[in-house]
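Suppose a colleague, Dr. K., hands you the sequence of a protein chain of 179 amino acids and asks what its three-dimensional shape might be. Before reaching for any lab equipment, you can write down a predicted structure in token form. Begin with the sequence itself:
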Amino acid sequence: MDFQTETLGKSEEISALFAETFSASEGADEGKVIGDLVTNLIKTTGKEDLYVFSVRDHSGLVGSVLFSRISYAQDDRQVFILSPAAVRPDRKKQGIGQKLMNFALNKLREQRIDVVVTYGDPNYYSKVGFQQITVEIAKPPLKLSQPHGWLGQSLFQEKLEPLTGSSSCVSALNKPELW
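The predicted structure, expressed as tokens, is then:
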């Protein structure tokens, strides 16, 4: 497995992976929404506000995760949200997603990112250290449709101390229908 942090010339391939993965699990409409989200994140988000991690093997691109910045008005900690994550449908249940996320979290630690949050399945993301959090711990930028899926972790502290102030996300994620 070859873990990568470079997207140059690969954004269409990465977006297609997300569209294929989400179409297979959630239907064609959701696949298009998530594929478009990834395209927009890569095209419209500044390098200081976006990290893209991918994994390849002999068969090509098999997984990718994106982390984009969330800013808290009264908190100096650097916070990023993992959204979205995908592993090619024919490669699921092989530990690829966990290995990729662990690689990404280690790279984020190297970049001195303090906190990561995500919005998804607590059973899946808990395997890489995410824990359910409340909106009092980390206020999301938009209203959550499924608050039980709001997850977070500190990359340097044992416990995630509450983030202070209102929050804002990058423009590609600033859409109520994604939350």
